[in-house]
Write a structure and sequence with these properties.
Keywords: Membrane, Signal
Strand order of the largest sheet: 5-4-1-6
Distance between the termini: 31 Å
Pfam family, one: Rick_17kDa_Anti
Main location: membrane
Subcellular location: Membrane
Protein name: Glycine zipper 2TM domain-containing protein
Shape: rod-shaped
């Protein structure tokens, strides 16, 4: 009977030992913390408006027409026969040139400022923290892990204890 009780006690003690062999939490001493920084490019568009001079083609035609008619009438008053025809044509051409210069002041067109938008893509490099490389010491063993936060002076660790086979 004592042998049965001893066997039962050893089995119960073994079961309790297995239950206590589960994981537990403790704290390790942090030796160093190094931020993990990476360079990231966020390209941006940079635009500006420039004003460039352009010549506006806004020449009037009325002066040429009226000058041509007036010159043709005046040329028709000169000479006779074929000479009258030539004088009418020459008067019309000369009148059109004079009428154009009077209307447009001898200029090819007015100068204006036109807005031109120029855009380009520029690099925008920024630093981004990807976490922290944490080196810690627990019972004489050094380990390193990357965490999303800086743990400070102590790091909470999960310790697993299991029997050797």
């Amino acid at each position: 009977m004592n042998a049965i009780r001893a066997s039962f006690a050893l089995t119960l003690l073994g079961a309790c030992g297995a239950a206590f062999a589960a994981d537990f939490e403790d704290y390790a001493r942090v030796v160093s913390v190094t931020p993990q920084i990476e360079q990231v490019n966020y390209p941006q568009q940079e635009c500006r408006t420039e004003y460039v001079p352009v010549q506006r083609e806004s020449r009037g035609m009325g002066g040429s027409i009226i000058g041509g008619i007036a010159g043709g009438i005046l040329g028709n008053q000169v000479g006779g026969g074929n000479g009258r025809t030539v004088a009418t044509a020459a008067g019309a051409i000369a009148g059109a040139i004079v009428g154009d210069r009077l209307e447009n002041n001898g200029q090819g067109g007015a100068m204006e400022q036109q807005a031109v938008r120029n855009c380009r893509t520029v690099d925008n490099w920024q630093q981004r923290n990807n976490g922290y490389a944490v080196t810690y010491e627990y019972h004489g063993r050094m380990s390193t892990v990357v965490l999303p936060y800086d743990p400070g002076q102590r790091l909470r660790v999960r310790v697993a204890v299991s029997p050797m086979p």
